Amino acid sequence: MFMTLSMPSHAIVIVIVIIVIIIVTFILLSYIDNQQRLDTPLHKEKYNVAESNAVKNNEQDVMQPILNELEKDNDNFNDNFDSIHPEDISWELIEKFKVDYDDHFQPIVSPWDVSKSWVNSREIFPDVVPELGMVLKSMANEPVIYADIAPRGTQLKLLLVLKGGQKVLFKPKWFERDQVIEGPPYAGQDRHNGEIAAFHLSRILGFRRTPLTVGRYLNLQTEVIPVASSRLLDTFFYKDNDTCFYGKCYYCKGKESGVCAQKTILEGTIVLWISHKMQLYRHPWGRTYIDNKQAKWETDAKFCDKVLQTDMYKLGIRLLDIIDTSVFDYIIGNADRHHYETFHEFPDSMVIMLDNGKSFGNPYHDEYSILAPLYQCCKIRQSTYDQLKMLKNGILSKVLEAVLLFDPISPILNKFHLRSIDRRLHQLLTTIDNCVKEQGMPNVIISDEKLIPEKHVET
Ligand SMILES: Nc1ncnc2c1ncn2[C@@H]1O[C@H](COP(=O)(O)OP(=O)(O)OP(=O)(O)O)[C@@H](O)[C@H]1O
Ligand SMILES: [Mn+2]
């Protein structure tokens, strides 16, 4: 006070200005930090196997009873389904889900307008959709008119514009089909074939919440370089006779992290871009990706009760969508769902099953923690449960295998991966049965009609 009084007035102004600057900087920094927590890719590669085991050991304390149960059940599980039930509906389902990529159907409007018209708040394409082959075929064949780096995310991918103005992502091939990815459940680069299998699985499981996906061989010399942006072009290089590029992404570190074509042909996956504005959320059951730091759900078996207390998840569409997503991720082996996105303009928007690249890495490992939303909440949508039951006893893999045969870069999954999905489906049904035994059918199996769209409060 004394100091203030004795200071000349211009000094007081300077002090006030400095204080204001400090306050504004503080507010700005905490805002940026908040944004970054949502927008910035997390530091996944800090993990190693030992740390992941540490997480697992603790987590197993929480889920030990159910793991014991599953282990007993696994002993009785026989995946030799050669003599399937006489009421085998596989062939009916194959007829329904197979896609005719040679379809000569010529729509009056463009394939891109057709696929855009399919999107609504609860699905990205309809259940019965004769034009699907035509759209997927266009994605696999239409000329590329512009190619750029796709800067968002941690994985190297291209952003392409196809003739007619449609944006798509191109996720390149890194692994051979038989490669087993060891290490933490989110280890390794994207599996481009996993994206394709996940898309068709989402159709067969009745979710239809994944963007349209198809395999494509891309000629980097004739299809990409002539239409590439200069920032993409700058990252092209040659290794022996192969054309390579390293693009730009969180983990793209120049040539050593680049991807190479076989001579000029690069195999990969095309994912149709969805142009609706999306809202990004942290996944309540996301992993921490920080050394020796566990997420709340990994140590608290009653974590779901806390989630249920929040406005956004009080038993409604959103929580059941999260549980559907965990069912889907468990089957495909994706333990990397750190965030999720919804359609901004729809209050009852689905949780979009975007980015399924970290799937089908290890067919011999079932990452049970992916199912935490299901076994901690003990709730599942009736329609999902019915669909899972319908696809048990080997039907799921049989239908998926047949449907995947039609993709331009088939074969997509080897027999070990196909077997793993039947095994995981069996474990899923056992998990649901356990919940029903403990809590009763009406508390576990939630009918879709009961669901009233809720006001979603931003968190
Ligand atoms: N098909 C799509 N349509 C619209 N936006 C998409 C699509 N695919 C991805 N995106 C947007 O781009 C972001 C990054 O894509 P994606 O998650 O596939 O990349 P990634 O490198 O695997 O990311 P991460 O490292 O976070 O897992 C997504 O979070 C989403 O906002
Ligand atoms: Mn990813």
Topology:
Blueprint: H1 2-6, H2 9-39, H3 49-76, H4 90-97, H5 111-118, H6 132-141, E1 144-149, E2 158-162, E3 166-172, H7 192-204, E4 213-219, H8 220-224, H9 230-233, E5 236-239, E6 242-245, E7 259-260, E8 265-272, E9 278-282, H10 296-299, H11 303-308, H12 317-332, E10 339-343, H13 372-377, E11 380-381, H14 382-390, H15 395-404, H16 415-439, H17 441-444, E12 445-446
Helix pairs in contact: 3-16, 4-15, 5-6, 7-15, 12-16, 15-16
The protein binds adenosine-5'-triphosphate and manganese (II) ion.
Fraction of residues in β-strands: 5-15%
Radius of gyration (Å) = 24 Å
The end-to-end distance, rounded to whole angstroms, is 42 Å
The protein's oligomeric status is single chain
Strand element count: 12
Derived from helix and strand composition plus strand pairing, the structural class reads alpha+beta
Share in helix: 40-55%
SS field, number of helical segments: 17
Mean pLDDT: 86
Give the names of the bound compounds.
Answer: adenosine-5'-triphosphate, manganese (II) ion
Strands in their spatial order, largest beta sheet? 1-2-3-8-4
